[in-house]
Amino acid sequence: GAGVSQSPRYKVTKRGQDVALRCDPISGHVSLYWYRQALGQGPEFLTYFNYEAQQDKSGLPNDRFSAERPEGSISTLTIQRTEQRDSAMYRCASSQLAHYGYTFGSGTRLTVV
Amino acid sequence: TQLLEQSPQFLSIQEGENLTVYCNSSSVFSSLQWYRQEPGEGPVLLVTVVTGGEVKKLKRLTFQFGDARKDSSLHITAAQPGDTGLYLCAGAPVSSGSARQLTFGSGTQLTVLP
Q1: CB distance from A25 to chain B under 8 Å?
Q2: Which residues 70-109 of A are in CB contact (within 8 Å) with B?
Q3: What was the pLDDT predicted at A40?
Q4: Which of A72, A83, B22, B27 could form a disulfide with B93 if both were Cys (CB 3.0 to 4.6 A apart)?
Q5: Which residues, numbered 23 to 82 in chain B, qualify as contacts with chain A under a Cβ-Cβ cut-off of 8 Å?
Q6: Where does residue B28 rank: exposed (0-12), middle (13-18), buried (19+ CB within 10 A)?
Q7: What's the gap in Å between the CA of B16 and the closest CA on chain A?
Q8: Cis ω on the peptide bond leading into residue B8 (within 30° of 0)?
């Protein structure tokens, strides 16, 4: 696609429910990144993929968070048993293998009530 | 402790004024990037600086990478209300062994008043 697409744009969920956040990167972009961003702050790294391989998941806060990119394109970030502290803007970005600039999506605003 | 420290955190100026924001670290970076983010949107890449001492200009914006590749600055000449936004620097420290995973600074929120 023309840009990085994230869905849903907004998600409100009850504490304890599982949520899945989707990212569709720019076509041909090999690398895909997940970040979490608090209001007025810089994005905080969660995990990233080259093709379908998860290269680094050191930023995932705990084992309730997981991500996959099975076919090297669309990625899903899953949060199990959500807690209020998981409320945040979740951002996805993609980049070409040989180009270091990221293109970000508009994000998913997750609210856990 | 932030790997990339940005200053000032907040800056409010009048249209037409000049300003400089800073991005500092004790780590060496192979490159640094600057992004601008507007409310409700994702960060948008402005520039990448790669060589120590490098200066890049983008219209009224001038970016500089420190000689030691540990810091960078962004200077805006004759600021306009359209420059308002959150300015973020980002990079991957050489010590991390990965050039792909970026660490972001906490940002400078710039407001340019008409």
Answers
A1: no
A2: 91, 93, 95, 100-107
A3: 87
A4: B27
A5: 31, 33, 35, 40-45, 48
A6: middle
A7: 24
A8: yes
